[in-house]
Amino acid sequence: MGKKKKDCLFHVDGFEEWMDQFCSDSCSNFSFPNQIHIDLCETEQEYILETDVPNVTEQNVVIKKMETGLNICILHKNISLQRNIPLPTTIIYKKMLACLENGFLAIHISKNEVANKHEEKVLFQIEN
């Protein structure tokens, strides 16, 4: 008997394929300790990409928006770690904001807010 898909409040074209690719990419990172391991969470308002980056500051992290997804580059102690994260085209144009606190990097991707057309990098949240 086939699985019945649930009705979903938020529909994103290509989301299931994105999740399949994301999970297979995450699993392949177990054999490469110098790769950036990313976890994905979802709330009603946003998607959240999370990773541990101990002893790294915002100045050492560059998150670029590409046509096909995000490129995360971390420079620390003369070592460069990089990860390309494929995203559905409908998501790449959404507003994104990064937070780095206590060695924990979170990239928040809004489901509703559209980004500035000329944003090439994901900016870090400014603490008040």
UniProtKB/TrEMBL annotation:
Keywords: Capsid protein, Virion. Residues 45-108 form the ArsA HSP20-like domain. It comes from the Bacteria. The keyword RNA-binding does not apply. InterPro entries: ArsA_HSP20-like, HSP20-like_chaperone. Pfam families: ArsA_HSP20. The keyword Methyltransferase does not apply. This is Spore coat protein M. It comes from Bacillus anthracis. The gene is cotM.
